[in-house]
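User: Show me a protein chain along with its predicted structure.
Assistant: Here is one chain, sequence first, then structure tokens.
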Amino acid sequence: MKTQNKYERLPPVCLVLYGLAAVSLILYVVMMNSVSFADWFNETVSAALRSVFAILTNWIPFSMGEAVILLSPLILFLVLRHAILHRCGSWKAAFAYIGILLSCVATLFSVFTLNFAAGYRGSTLDQKLELDRAKVSAQELYDTASILIESINRETDGVDFGKSGFSSMPYTLDEMNDKLATAYRDFSEEHDFITHVNSRVKPVLVSEVMSYMHITGVYSFFTGEANINVNFPDYTIPYTAAHELAHQRGIAREDEANFVAFLVCIGSDDPYIRYCGYLNAYEYVASALYRADQELYYKASARLNGEVKAEMAAYNEFYDKYRESTVSEVSGTINNSYLQSQGTPGTVSYGMVVDLAVAYYKAQK
């Protein structure tokens, strides 16, 4: 009797992974149809898994997610090499190998579903914060921009502006991580939908490449890491870091991650982080105001501190190098498709933080 070649058998672990993917698919369908279940899952099961992932990778000095992506050509080569050397002897061996590869894809789906997907399907942030989010008028944008300008001007007293026009972050990335961790701990104590995680953001080695792709940061759900592009000016980094840390804590929608980043930054006891939070939010609001009413935009921006205006001008000059590139169009299309597949409006949702900012300041009156 002929013994079956070991390469012609699908390893039992693959069957387990397929089973996990089937369960994940059922959970995903339930999440899509039940906001309350999605909220519960995101704040319990997913929160625990995200914490475990973050703890397991937090001690590693580099980004594992980035390493996997950079090594993907080598991984693909090894996969093809193994297929040619060991899996082309028979149809059974070839199909078994395809089954193994598909089980890896199924595992990524399972990790995404269990770790992050519920954040897209749960109740919205305005509901959690009890904000009255509605369509905003040009006057409301102007009022919000004016409040932000007052806050920015107040915080500039504690900001060091260099000769380049940019402000300088007065501490290291590790020190910034500690300050954001404290700010997030305080925020989580006041909002039970945020789980406290003792983690940090990791700088990306290929930040220059990410700049051409118009990517300032990314949360790697399969490694639990919050990664940031450190090629951008200092004043964008604390806010971007807070945004990616929001994803790590289950805030999946982009506008909501932007707004949580804003709230965390302005709640910090560090003046530079508060400055970054106010200025980044102002840029979103000012852009919306400019589109709605240029006269009100210029009226508001005229009150902005001169050093802040210089910083914004310096950023525009810096960004000119990366503004138009083929790779940014490709990455933008991919990101937009992904976000739309999760039930959001796509990349336009980043700017929808404006609605939340207006609602927030209206509630403060």
